[in-house]
Request: fold
Amino acid sequence: MRRQALKILGLDENADPQEIKRAYRAIISEVHPDSGKQSDYAYSAQEINAAYDYLNKHPVASSDVRKPGGNTRRNAENGSFNHFHDDYGKRYTNRDEGAETAGFQSRIWNAPENAQAYHSRDIMEHVTDEDGQVIGTIKIARGKFHWIPDEEFLLFLKSIMGCAKEVLEECDADRPDGQPPDNVYRYQAELVYLLAAQFMDAESLLRELSGEKEKNGIYFLQAMLEKSDTKKISEGASLYPSMLKSHRLYLKDDAGTTRGYLSFPDDRLYYALIPLFEQKAVQVRITTGKHVKQGSKVYQKLDLHLRFSGQMENLPENLNLKIGKLLEKYRYE
Reply:
C-alpha cells in the first residue's frame, strides 16, 4: 500500500514527510477541478488525496529513510505531471497502464456509522495548493458515518446540505409535475436539521466537551440564555424548559415567565442537543451565571447539567419518522 501511494505521488521509497507534502501540494494544485488548469496526470484528485492521507497516517521512522539516490524520483515541483516512472524505469501515461490502484479510490473513513440513518452522505476534505491555500473540496468517502472531530464541522454541514438536496431531488420524481415547490428551501432547511441530528453522536460530543466534569452520567456544559428582555436574572437562579419552537428551547423562571431561549457557544451542540430535548431524551438542570451585554444583544451565561433518559434508544427511529412525514408533505405540496 505504501509503495503504491508513493507511486501515485511520483515519489520513491526514500521520500521523507516534507518531500511527500511538497509533491502532494504541487500535484493537487494541477489536477484538482477547481484549479482551472488542464492536466493529463495519470491519477485523479481523489486518488492523489487518498494516497497522501495514507502516507500521513503510515509514516516511516526517519532512520528508515535513505538519502535520495538514482533517477527514479520524479521532480514533483517542476510542473510536469504527465507521467511517472516505476522502480524499473517504465513510463506510464494513464492509470490503465500503471500499477494497480486498488485501495486508493477513496479513503476508508474511520468513524462509526448509524445504520438507521435515512440516507448516506459524502465525507469531504479541503484540497490546498502549494502555498497551503484552500482551492476546493474533494469527496473521500461516502456512507452513513457519524460526525467525528477529524471531519471539519463546516464541511460536515456542507455534506448534510448535499445529502438533503439529493433526498429532495429523489422526491421530485414522485411529485405530480416533477418539479420542486416554490418553498423548497423551507423544506431543505428542515431536512438539513433532521439529517444532521442523525449523524451527531450526542453522547460522545457531550463527553468530549464535558471532559473531567462528567460524573455518574451527568454532563456539565456552558451555554447562554438569549434574552427576550434586558432585565437581569440573579446569578445562581434556576431556569426551566418552557417550550420548543422552531428548534429553539425557551426557558422560564420560577414565576413561569419565559425569559429567552437556550443558545450555545459551540454550534455542534445545536444539532446534537436540541433534538434530544425535542425527543425528551435528556433531563436538565439549569442555573444562571453572569449577565452579559454585547452591542444590542443581551444574554446570560448558563450552567447546564444533563443526563440521558430512557428515550434515547428511540431517537433514530423517531427522526426517521419525522423525515418521512416531512417528505410526504413535500411530495404533495
In short: The radius of gyration is 25 Å. The longest helix spans residues 153-172. The chain has eight helices and ten strands.
